[in-house]
Design brief:
Blueprint (H helix, E strand, L loop, with lengths): L3 E7 L4 H16 L4 E7 L3 H8 L3 E4 L10 E3 L1 H5 L3 H12 L1
Length: about 90
């Protein structure tokens, strides 16, 4: 199975995106999906997408229009509705 590429963006590309990325990788690993996450600022997301061609982009904030599936992942931080967001990500990368 090939490694799935996921970009996680937040306002500063710091703790928030890294926290979401870590939780996504852990969830997908439990589902048997090999995934590699990359984190960035929202202002950098279009450039990163054009460079690595991810399977999905997740974000804690509003994203610009992109040519890949996007998911609002704030629920992963709060825990409220996180299962639904994880399932959406899994449905895209499986």
């Amino acid at each position: 199975m090939d490694t799935k590429k996921i970009v996680v963006a937040c306002g500063t590309g710091g703790v928030t995106s890294k926290n979401i990325a870590m939780k996504i990788e852990k969830y997908l690993k439990g589902k048997g999906v090999d995934a590699k996450t990359s984190t960035c600022r929202v202002s950098e997301v279009a450039t990163l997408v054009s460079q690595i061609h991810p399977d999905v982009v997740c974000s804690a904030t509003q994203l610009p229009p992109l040519d890949v599936p996007t998911i609002k992942a704030t629920a992963i931080l709060t825990g409220v509705g996180a299962d639904k967001v994880f399932e959406q990500i899994y449905d895209i990368v499986k």
